[in-house]
Amino acid sequence: MAMTTHHDAHGLAFTASSADSAQRFHDFTTCYMGFRPDTGLVLKEIATADPDMPMARIGKGYLAKLMGSASHSARADKVSAGMGAHLEQVGANDRERRHAAALAAWCAGDLDRTTRIWEDILLDHPMDGLALRLAHFTHFYSGDGRRMRDSLARVLPLWSEDHPNYGYLQGMYAFGLEEAGEYDKAERYGRAAVARNRQDAWSVHAVAHVLEMTERHEDGIAWVAELEDGWSTTNNFRFHLYWHKCLYHLERGEFDEVLRIYDAQVASDITSDFYLDICNCSSLLWRLEMFGVDVGDRWTALAEVARTHLADRDLIFVSLHYLMALIANGDMVAAEQMMDSLRTWSTLDDTQARICADVGLAIADGLKLARGGRHAEAVTVMEPVRYALARIGGSKAQRDVFMMILLDAAKASNDALVARALFAERLGDKVHSSWTWKNYGAVLEANGQTDEAMRAEEEARRILAA
Fold first, then answer.
1. Is residue 152 classed as helix, strand or coil in its secondary structure?
2. Fewer CB near the terminus (10 Å): N or C of the chain?
3. How distant, in Å, are the alpha carbons of 221, 396, 437 from that of 393?
């Protein structure tokens, strides 16, 4: 096909065989921003109609990397390997060449360079929604909410509020604000985005995070439920919003409801092998057990999926959740194989490998030790990295499970002074947490502070009765 320059309705230039391909790529970006289940299908249709379009090829590589697994990364590698010659052949423009360079850096494991390229693209092309949303993703897995916040702040004033995707930017900005601790402003932007589009799952999710962080559990349940008809039409990301609903119910002591939602929704599509589903499920089951709930044989299905990811080296945050499933299910042979893979990964020279070395291995060791009843040793390895925990990526709400595991191990270690200090510290952020007050009461009792323990336990009961 003859290739020339065409522009979408918002001024972005594409090397393509037709103007329709340029506009359809805008549709693909909209689908991706909205977590629509037909995102891959739309890109496939573009690639079928215009197989030489550079951004269609690069988009396939991007989607493969977004799956966060070794098998999909291998597909991305194949796409990236052939891009250089193809770009020369079709006369690709500078923006497309930079996107190809970002994919190559991503495939090489250099997430820092990948993100810098996307941010550089946005300086020249602030309307490039795909670069913006992908940078949002990698900022998220750098664990620095300020970067997510500022990435959006740099371009948001340059977008017209009439742009059909403007609401998605508001929602991304809201989430960056939330992760940076600016809860009031985050809630305003998130609610404004949802007012534009109640199917905008990421914006619903941003407000859900605010409500979690500000411990407004009843409001969170109502918020997620009220909008369910919209966000439940999205892809597997919808299960993450059910996970949020479970967190609210968990703190309210409504364990039967948590298990019902887990079975009906959170774990309902686990065989599709989407990494976020495992993250949702592993962290929720481990939390339930720390609340004293018997989860039955639910770990088994997660472990079956996890055994197919022992050698993944894409995101340490995700790998730790696979490891959680293996350890909790008692699959120690597979767990040790994965630990060996993590140790090897930690010696490599890529962005996530360095995080694995600095933080990930300590958490992995702590999970194994805590589950094996070696609580004091778990505290010894996990406590030194707790202030670096954000580096593994994910959200504050997601990473909190690892802090809970540390505190749970401290309580079980019989070092009542350390446990008392950690639980008291947690009350600074979680003053309405029944789990925190209940456990704080137990460690106060172990320290001989009977009166204070009774007051803490009464506070836990008061929260549950509210």
1. helix
2. C
3. 25, 9, 28
Q: What is the mean predicted confidence (pLDDT) over 403-427?
A: 96
Two tokens, residue 274: 């989407």
Tell me the C-alpha distance between 110 and 107, whole Å. Answer: 8
Q: What does the block give as tokens for 117?
A: 């390229």
pLDDT of residue 68: 87
Question: What are the percentages of helix, strand and coil residues in the chain, rounded to 5?
Answer: 75, 0, 25
How do residues 239-254 score in pLDDT, each as one tens digit? 999 999 999 999 999 9
Nearest Cα to 193, choosing from 202, 184, 183, 181?
202
- Residues 318 and 313: their CA atoms lie apart, in Å, by 9
- Indicate the DSSP class of residue 6: E
Q: Are 106 and 65 in contact (CB under 8 A)?
A: yes
* Strand (E) or helix (H) holding 13: strand 13-16
Percent of the chain at pLDDT exceeding 70? 100
What number is the average pLDDT over the span 16-28? 96
Query: Which candidate, 330, 336, 321, 342, places its Cα nearest to that of 399?
Result: 321
- Distance CA(465)–CA(336), nearest Å, equals 43
| pLDDT at res. 291 | 97
Cβ proximity of 270 and 277 under 8 Å:
yes
| Residue where the block lists tokens 């609340």 | 291
Q: Exposed, middle or buried: residue 432 (CB in 10 Å: 0-12, 13-18, 19+)?
A: middle
d(CA 244, CA 267): 13
166-179 and 145-155 are packed helices; what angle lies between their axes, rounded to 10 degrees?
150
Helix (H) or strand (E) holding 123: helix 111-124
What's the CA gap between 132 and 125, in Å, rounded? 10
Distance between CA 50 and CA 373 in Å, rounded?
58
Query: For residue 81, how many other CB atoms are within 10 A of its CB?
Result: 12
Length reported for the chain? 466
